[in-house]
Amino acid sequence: MLLPSLVLALVSAAPATTTLQKPAAKDRSVDGIALPLLSFNSDFGVGYGVVGGMYLYGEGHEPYQHGLGAQVFFTSRGVQNHYLRYDGPGLLGPLRVEARFEYKREFRSPFYGAGNRSAPEFAGDVKDAWYNYDKGSPGAWLRLRGRPLGEEHPFQAYAGYAWRHTRVSPYEASMLEQQKPLGIEGGPTGQLLAGALWDTRDNESDPTTGGVEELALRLSGHTTGSRYRYIGVTLSERRYFRLGSRFIFAQRLSLDMLFGEVPFFEWSTTGGVNFTEGVGGMSSVRGIERNRFAGNIKVFSNSELRFHALDLRILGQPMKLGAAAFVDLGRVWHPGVTDGAWHEWHPGAGAGLRVARRAAVIRVDYALSTETGGQRLYMNYGHMF
User: Fold this and answer.
1) Which residues, at least 6 apart from 364, have a Cβ–Cβ distance to it below 8 Å?
2) For residues 104-126, b (16+ Cβ closer than 10 Å) or e, as one string?
3) What are residue 67's DSSP bridge partners?
4) What is the pLDDT of residue 317?
5) pLDDT below 70 — which residues of the chain?
6) CA 33, CA 13: separation in Å to the nearest integer?
7) pLDDT at residue 25 in the model
8) Rounded to whole angstroms, what are the CA distances from 126 to 45, 101, 323, 331, 373?
9) Cα(67)–Cα(244) distance, rounded to whole angstroms?
10) How far is CA 224 from the centre of its chain?
11) Cα dihedral across residues 104, 107, 113, 115: positive or negative
């Protein structure tokens, strides 16, 4: 169902024309994807809704002039994830403007405790109320990003603000109700954001060479509109190597550290330009239950071998079909708990399909893990990194 919907959406997004003499104008115009979400995700169950993305291209704007996205999404496990997203490279002169408004609701938000050896008795039933709680969290963020040393220079800097109000409702006789960690009262978390990147990728949305290094900071306190006071530091490295004409090796390393009065629902979050949560799930270690291991310090590695199989034109629209094989690793450290030896990492491995048209990428991944649960399936929009 996914691929036919993608093809129809790409075709319908193409500008109407009755001539064949102006392909260049057509190539610089608009790409759009609108997908019915009737799918299965191992972390969220059967999902249904609509997700859409549109890229408006313009001469002198890379990778696009405006990027728009929206999603309405529900799942059989009580998850709601709705958002509106905007990305405007060069919207305010040299500044890139990025914004997102969202509402998330989870009737079964995972909580396995803290640390690299959390909940050793877990038998794989993600529906077990002992490992879940009811959470609602509307939020928004705004970020300004620019290249102060020139448009062609790899150095970027950004600053912004993020706000979220988290409602926490523990189930009776659940692990969360029993442990009562900091944050069980819920409340607002306002964060000042700042960061710097060194970006040498040849293509931001579908890179084949170069890389990007990132240092990100987030500061939360009473003056930022937060109930909790803490600091987050994120270091990330992403590299891309072309191995012949059809193979790309991609590698990501990420370290995230939290200090201070950190609420438990922040243990699984990571700072930086791209949203990541874990350890466990489709954005950190595939094959492991979402947020299975969480704590103040998180490290994960993702290695992908990407294969460009075919270039085709379907109803006049150019598309790339490909595949990927991957290996993910992750672990956490948390104060006051036993995290095990340094070499106790949690692995995941698998393979997937890729469908791309310029900045628009769809990925489908199947992953296996040595952890309880064993196998998981993911369908998502955009490369993992």
Assistant:
1) 2, 352, 353, 377, 378, 379
2) bbbbbbbbbbbbbbbbeebeeeb
3) 55, 87
4) 79
5) 1-28, 373
6) 7
7) 38
8) 10, 28, 29, 20, 9
9) 31
10) 24
11) negative
pTM: predicted TM-score of the whole model, two decimal places: 0.84
User: What is the rounded distance in angstroms from the CA atom of residue 157 to the CA atom of residue 238?
Assistant: 17
**208 φ, ψ (degrees, to nearest 5):** -125, -20
336 vs 8, 117, 122, 266, 370, CA distance in Å? Answer: 53, 12, 20, 17, 26
Contacts of 247 (CB under 8 A, 6+ apart): 305, 306, 307, 308
Here the tokens at position 202 are 């040849």
Determine the 3-state secondary structure of 198 from DSSP. strand
H-run or E-run covering 17: none
Identify the pLDDT of residue 28. Answer: 55
In the chain, the domains with their CATH numbers are 2-381 (2.40.160.50)
> How many other β-carbons are positioned within 10 Å of the β-carbon of residue 88?
18
Contact status, residue 76 vs residue 37, Cβ threshold 8 Å: no
* pLDDT at residue 164, rounded to an integer: 97
Q: Do residues 236 and 257 touch, judged by C-beta distance below 8 A?
A: no
Please enumerate in sequence order all residues whose Cβ is within 8 A of that of 219, keeping only pairs 6 or more positions apart, or say none. Answer: 191, 192, 231, 232
Cα distances (Å, whole numbers) of residue 13 to 10, 36, 50, 56, 218: 5, 15, 16, 11, 38
Contact 160, 115 (CB under 8 A): no
Give the pLDDT confidence score for residue 4 in this predicted structure. Answer: 36
| 12, containing H or E segment | helix 2-13
CA pair distance 183, 181, nearest whole angstrom: 6
In whole angstroms, what is the distance from residue 209 CA to residue 203 CA? 8
